[in-house]
Design a protein that fits this description.
The complex is a heterodimer of chains A (984) and B (80). Chain A is an alpha+beta fold and 984 residues long. Chain A has 26 helices and 50 strands. In chain A, strand 37 and strand 38 form a beta hairpin. Chain A is elongated. Chain B has 80 residues and is mostly beta strands. Chain B has one helix and six strands. In chain B, strands 3-4-5-6 form a four-stranded antiparallel β-sheet, with no helix packed on it. Classes of the chains: A alpha+beta (984), B mainly beta (80). Chains A and B meet through helix 21 and helix 25 of A and helix 1 of B. Bound molecules: zinc ion.
């Protein structure tokens, strides 16, 4: 690659006195203040910047601004960022960037070998080829050679910010119409936010040759900006993309260079009374063979590089167009001293002014098209032909092809807002039709491509917006606009030149490597809806997001199917318009700021006792196990289990979800929520209950105690706390507002130290208390209130381990005192703290169900062998009807069963499917929980198995990723099956 | 994102609210329903295109329940 300077005189946006050093692919270059990374690279003679996504073809600069999807690079350094467009990255001192999609280097790329396979990567290739046996087998290979940049390795030094803003008028786009709208709205006294996604305000005016009231475009822009910036009610955001127009006239803006400078990006979420969409238009390509070669560029981008950055994108150009706007570029090329080998116009008739401009080219071909491009890493020439005959008439040497297929209004935001589009036969583009929200569209964004119209349209929109919200408005000042190029915009519909050779590649979507042949193949395969076609071929789906590819794809489909553009219709535009970094969604709400962890009053004690802590669901951090020095995880868990079965253990049960329920209809509420009856519960007596969803599946289980006549304490699964609260809240307020009942979540009001094991009673009796712990005075499933070690407590006799167990609850502020007191008092009984792992083992030994294990959202009480919990007397409870209706079908259901692996030391993996013969491929259930039981000195498991209760003693097999483990089906209880121990 | 008026807290962002769906009659007693009516009650919603009345809760604010009218296409809200 030869390094030459392409810098010429002029350049309205660069400051030549300020040199900037930067690095690309390991080599050092210089550019100027005001350059983009793209213009600086081009000035340094770099025209091959990336390799394409699928075929790894060389790619260069193809467009300007956010439409230049092939200029994607990776920014390295402290704030490394993948998938950044060089065309919108401001050059800054020390900027370090490199190419993506190439390994080991841009010039020698292994993935290029894929191009040799390219005939077998047609549309839907991934769907067709990698379906079997599983996509994941192929994924690592595909990810390595495909995929764009690399995710950042470290957290950026600067942070992401977020702000919520309210204004009268939000204007998106600071081109001629947006700036005019800004003038009108701000002069009316409206609070205005003006957001523009380019590095400088001005849009198309920056590279325009017109004068406004005798001023150049750039001069006019700076005057307007000065007026706006002097107005304190105007907030002007530059390098800020409005990427989402959501319901509620709510627009999300990504600020890429926000102030203060310690912010890397800021997400602005704006609620506006009126939104003016002045987003302008994108020039669209014409699709022909090898239209992706470096050196094939959109005509307007060529003009912009010449006029704004004083960069020559090539030495010898061919211009290919179907409309008048490309002739501006012809003049710009000529002014920059680039020789124009030919102008190729698909039209047979053009107006005189155009003919005059075309005379600056060596040759002017009308009624002609570019059939193909020659060259590999750079254009070396084009083959042209007349529109009628298929044969190439002439080969023309050149290194630059300037293409204009017309202009598409940028309707993304409008379409996101819910507005509908119409196809306009005059400009052959989709334009906004019916509005849905409080917005206006102005200028080129609604097809007003002429500068004079666009300025006027913008001012009118600004006025109208101000008027709508009741502000006084001024008359539009008249502007004298003189444009040396005075041909009106006119266009002939023309989309693509299909390659003559079937293997030729003409790209519709450069970002996703989607070709004309891909579209044709998909059409032949029967994909007719444009939405299906888009998904199947991925045209316009990736980085492009419909900026350049969509309308062209629609044009190709319409032509192929012989229907109108309107009949094909557009695909849905969805946010985001440009890629948005994840950090912007989070802002400063990262890690535990967005979802704080929850701790109990005893958490610090657990940590200092060496507990291994983990998040146990619902953000509760709990002790998993407490290893002694030198003890492995398994050894610690087994020791804790033995402690509970033989001595006494203590468990921090504080996270258990708890709700205080009060009111005359409390009992009615409980009877509706639970499948079993809560009538005639004694005061201080408790009952276990199972709660269903209205669809008849289990939602939660827990124990509810009656505190007084009209007062209850309900408990539920720890992980279900929030869901339970929502359920109770909506039930009481919406479904049965007639019930006289209130509830309060009291989970964190109470600390809970659960003392369990055969010695539990002896321990509690050794502590000073006014509570009688004797079995007959304080039976199982009862509660007592009193004073215990000088603390007021509620003690519940409930057991989740199958042993004698007391849950001692005290107001949270006494929690740690209670705990340490019990640890000290328990010393003589060798008390041990136990964690969640041991608890899990103990409950599996007892066959107690657990949400997320045995209860997976498909299960009802009968499946679990818990017919006893479904009241036969009640005529109503939530889910009753649905469960009855489902059970009428008499389908085979999965039942809760126990499993004893034949090899008693082999552990069944949780989640493993259960099969009935070694070779069977039909899962008949799965392993829901599996542990080593120190009590039984063997492995045990619970599972759900089709018709399992009728299959006791049968041998089934767990398929552990190919390893088949046989196990005997048994009843789902392995310890103390009559429950005497916990009732002791 | 919508701006919604909580009767106590005033105009707040939608992210603070929980929508409970369209307003429906009080939950009927199961014994008064045929199987078909029960399935309809559990599964069917009007899903109307146009103005509907909804139950909302200021769940991440004061917890108040209230009703509002929302247009399901334009998302316009009428709270009076
Ligand atoms: Zn509120």
């Amino acid at each position: 690659m030869s390094i030459r300077s392409n810098r010429i005189a002029g350049g309205d946006l660069i400051v030549r006195s300020q040199k900037i050093r930067f690095e690309f692919n390991g080599r050092k270059y210089t550019g100027f203040q005001g350059d983009t990374l793209a213009s600086a690279l081009m000035a340094n003679g770099i025209d091959f910047v990336s390799r394409s996504f699928k075929y790894h073809r060389p790619r260069g600069f193809s467009a300007s601004g956010y439409a230049d999807v092939s200029s994607m690079v990776q920014i390295d350094g402290d704030e490394d960022t993948p998938n950044v467009l060089a065309s919108v990255t401001p050059l800054s001192e020390g900027l370090t960037a490199r190419s993506v999609n190439c390994w080991p280097s841009l010039e020698f790329d292994v993935g290029t070998a894929l191009r040799l396979l390219s005939p077998i990567i047609p549309a839907g290739f991934y769907y067709k080829t990698f379906m079997w046996p599983h996509w994941h087998l192929f994924e690592p290979f595909i990810r390595k050679i495909a995929g764009f940049g690399n995710a950042p390795n470290s957290i950026p030094v600067r942070c992401f910010g977020k702000s919520y803003d309210y204004c009268d008028v939000l204007i998106v786009g600071a081109g001629p119409s947006g700036l005019s709208a800004g003038l009108a709205a701000s002069r009316s006294g409206a609070r205005v936010i003006l957001a523009d996604d380019m590095l400088q305000p001005g849009g198309g005016l920056l590279s325009s040759s017109a004068t406004i009231d005798g001023k150049s475009g750039i001069e006019w822009v700076s005057e307007v900006v000065e007026e706006l910036d002097a107005n304190p009610s105007v907030t002007r955001l530059q390098n800020a993309t409005a990427w989402g127009y959501l319901e509620g006239n709510h627009v999300v803006i990504s600020e890429r260079s926000p102030t203060p400078e310690n912010l890397l990006r800021r997400s602005r979420r704006v609620w506006a009374k009126q939104v003016i969409i002045a987003t302008g238009a994108f020039e669209r390509p014409i699709v022909f063979e090898n239209n992706d070669r470096p050196g094939v560029m959109q005509a307007s981008a060529v003009s912009s590089y010449i006029r704004n950055y004083a960069v020559k994108p090539g030495q010898k150009a061919v211009v290919f167009t179907n409309n008048n706007s490309a002739y501006r570029t012809v003049s710009d090329l000529s002014r920059a001293g680039i020789s124009i080998a030919a102008v190729v116009d698909v039209r047979s008739r053009v107006d005189d002014h155009v003919v005059k401009v075309a005379s600056q080219a060596t040759d002017f071909y009308q009624d002609s098209i570019v059939q193909t491009v020659y060259g590999n890493k750079r254009v070396t020439g084009v083959g042209i032909r007349s529109r009628e005959t298929g044969r190439i008439k002439r080969k023309i040497d050149c290194d630059l092809v300037c293409v204009s297929g017309g202009w598409n209004p940028i309707v993304h935001l409008f379409s996101q807002s819910g507005g509908s589009l119409d196809y306009n036969e005059q400009i052959h583009a989709f334009i906004p039709a019916q509005l849905l929200q409080k917005s206006l569209v102005a200028g080129a964004a609604r097809g007003r491509f002429n500068l004079r119209d666009s300025l006027r349209d913008g001012f009118e929109a600004g006025k109208l917006a101000a008027e709508t919200i009741g502000l006084p408005v001024q008359a539009q000042p008249s502007l004298k606009v003189i444009d040396r190029f005075d041909a009106e915009y006119s266009i002939e519909e023309f989309w693509s030149v299909p390659p003559i050779n079937r293997l030729g590649k003409a790209f519709v979507d450069l970002a996703g490597d989607v070709t004309v042949n891909d579209l044709h193949l998909a059409l032949r395969e029967g994909y007719e809806s444009i939405e299906h076609l888009k998904r199947y071929t991925t045209a316009g789906m990736g980085l492009d997001q419909g900026k350049t590819a969509n309308v062209t794809a629609i044009g190709i489909v319409a032509k192929h199917a012989g229907v109108s553009m309107a009949e094909v219709g557009t695909t849905t535009f969805r946010p985001p318009y440009t890629p948005v970094e994840f950090g912007e969604f989070a802002g400063s709400c990262t890690e535990d700021v967005v979802l704080p962890y929850r701790y109990t009053p005893m958490t610090e004690w657990h940590k200092s006792a060496g507990a291994v802590m983990f998040e146990a669901g619902a953000r509760w951090v709990r002790p998993s196990y407490y290893p002694l020095s030198g003890e492995s995880m398994d050894q610690a868990i087994q020791r804790e289990c033995r402690t509970v079965r033989q001595g006494v253990g203590i468990y921090d049960g504080s996270p258990l979800a708890k709700f205080a329920i009060k009111g005359a209809d409390s009992e009615t509420l409980l009877d509706l929520m639970y499948t079993n009856s809560f009538q005639n519960l004694d005061i201080q007596q408790g009952k276990y209950g199972v709660m269903l969803h209205e669809d008849g599946r289990i939602f939660d289980d827990g124990v509810t105690f009656r505190l007084s006549d009209d007062e209850y304490l309900m408990s539920g699964a720890t992980g279900n706390g929030i869901l339970l609260e929502t359920r109770l809240d909506s039930f009481i307020n919406v479904e049965r507002p007639d019930l006289n009942v209130l509830f309060t979540p009291v989970t964190s009001q109470w600390a809970n130290a659960t003392v369990c094991g055969p010695l539990a009673r002896t321990l509690l009796e050794s502590v000073e208390s006014d509570i009688n712990f004797a079995a007959d005075a304080f039976p199982f499933m009862h509660m007592r209130e009193g004073v215990f070690a000088d603390m007021s407590v509620r003690i519940f006799r409930v057991s989740f381990t199958g042993e004698l167990s007391f849950e001692i609850n005290t107001p949270a502020r006494y929690g740690l005192d209670l705990w340490t007191h019990l640890i000290k008092a328990g010393d003589q009984f060798d008390i041990c703290p136990i964690g969640s792992e041991a608890n899990h083992v103990l409950r599996v030994e007892k066959g107690f169900i657990s949400l997320g294990h045995e209860v997976d959202g498909t299960i009802d009480p009968y499946d679990l062998g818990m017919a006893w919990i479904v009241s036969k007397k009640k005529s109503d409870f939530i889910g009753m009807k649905a469960m009855q209706i489902r059970r009428k079908n008499d389908d085979t259901r999965q039942h809760l069963i126990g499993l004893l692996p034949i090899n008693s030391s082999e552990l069944l993996p949780e989640g493993a499917p259960l099969i009935s013969t070694i070779k069977s491929t039909r899962a008949e259930g799965f392993v829901s929980a599996s542990v080593w039981s120190s009590t039984l000195d063997r492995t045990i498991a619970l599972g759900l198995l089709a018709n399992g209760r009728e299959r006791l003693d049968e041998t089934v097999y767990a398929n552990a990723n190919g390893t088949i483990i046989p196990a005997i089906v048994c009843k789902p209880i392995f310890y103390d099956s009559d429950g005497r121990k916990m009732r002791m | 994102m919508l701006l919604i008026r909580c009767p106590w807290c005033g105009l707040r962002s939608e992210s603070e609210f929980h929508c409970n769906g369209e307003v429906r009659p009080i939950r009927p007693h199961s014994s008064s329903l045929t199987d078909q009516q029960s399935v309809q009650h559990t599964c069917d919603r009007l899903n109307f295109k146009g103005w509907i009345e909804e139950d909302w809760c200021h769940s991440k604010g004061c917890g108040e329940w209230f009703r509002l009218n929302r247009h399901t296409v334009t998302h316009e809200i009428d709270q009076d």
